[in-house]
């Protein structure tokens, strides 16, 4: 089991630093976009875009937070992320993760697309699709949010 302490000074390694080390983050930049109506009563805000060895990642926060998942029940929402670059390249869902923010009333997470953008690609048109069952409804409903994001310059 790996410790949260760095090898040198014994200081605790931050979650972001550990994630960047594990995933091999090569570039990141701030990004601010809000998908206000994707989930009723919640605001999905993207705050950063990053490249790692395998994917382009979109970091986000969702307020108020998603409800805790109940064992044996389907999740509150199913997500799918896709994108297309200005040269016509297609990107598929590369997975993601989410969880409650520490000490704050929100959910934080990441969506990703793959493959990595080719050299020379400057922008991606991203589509986030969400399937959810609104309160009181019996069937899932699909919603989506689209936006353009600049690809971070590689180091």
Q: Distance N terminus to C terminus? A: 31 Å
Give the full name of the CATH homologous superfamily: Conserved domain protein
Structural class, judged by helices and strands?
Answer: mainly beta
- According to CATH, the fold-level topology is Immunoglobulin-like
Tally of extended strands?
Answer: 8
CATH C-level class is Mainly Beta
Shape: globular
Describe this entry's structure for a reader.
- Helices cover 6% and strands 48% of the residues.
- The chain is mostly beta strands and 155 residues long.
- It has a single domain (29-150), classed as Immunoglobulin-like (Sandwich).
- Strands 1-2-3-6-5-4-7-8 form an 8-stranded antiparallel β-sheet, with no helix packed on it.
- The protein is globular, with a radius of gyration of 17 Å.
Concise description?
This protein has one helix at 15-23, and strands spanning 27-35, 43-51, 56-63, 77-85, 90-100, 107-114, 123-132, 141-150. With 155 residues, it is mainly β. The relative contact order is 0.21.
What's the helix and strand layout?
Blueprint: H1 15-23, E1 27-35, E2 43-51, E3 56-63, E4 77-85, E5 90-100, E6 107-114, E7 123-132, E8 141-150
Antiparallel strand pairs: 1-2, 2-3, 3-6, 4-5, 4-7, 5-6, 7-8
């Amino acid at each position: 089991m790996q410790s949260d302490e760095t090898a040198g000074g014994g200081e605790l390694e931050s979650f972001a630093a550990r994630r960047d080390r594990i995933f091999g983050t090569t570039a990141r930049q701030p990004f601010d976009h809000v998908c206000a109506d994707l989930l009723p009563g919640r605001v999905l805000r993207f705050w950063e875009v990053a490249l790692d060895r395998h994917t382009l990642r979109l970091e986000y926060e969702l307020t108020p937070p998603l409800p805790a998942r109940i064992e044996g029940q389907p999740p509150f929402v199913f997500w799918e992320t896709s994108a297309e670059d200005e040269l016509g390249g297609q990107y598929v869902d590369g997975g993601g993760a989410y969880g409650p923010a520490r000490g704050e009333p929100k959910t934080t997470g990441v969506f990703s697309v793959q493959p990595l953008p080719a050299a020379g690609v400057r922008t991606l048109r991203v589509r986030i699709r969400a399937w959810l069952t609104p309160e009181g409804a019996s069937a899932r409903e699909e919603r989506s949010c689209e936006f353009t994001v600049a690809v971070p310059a590689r180091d």
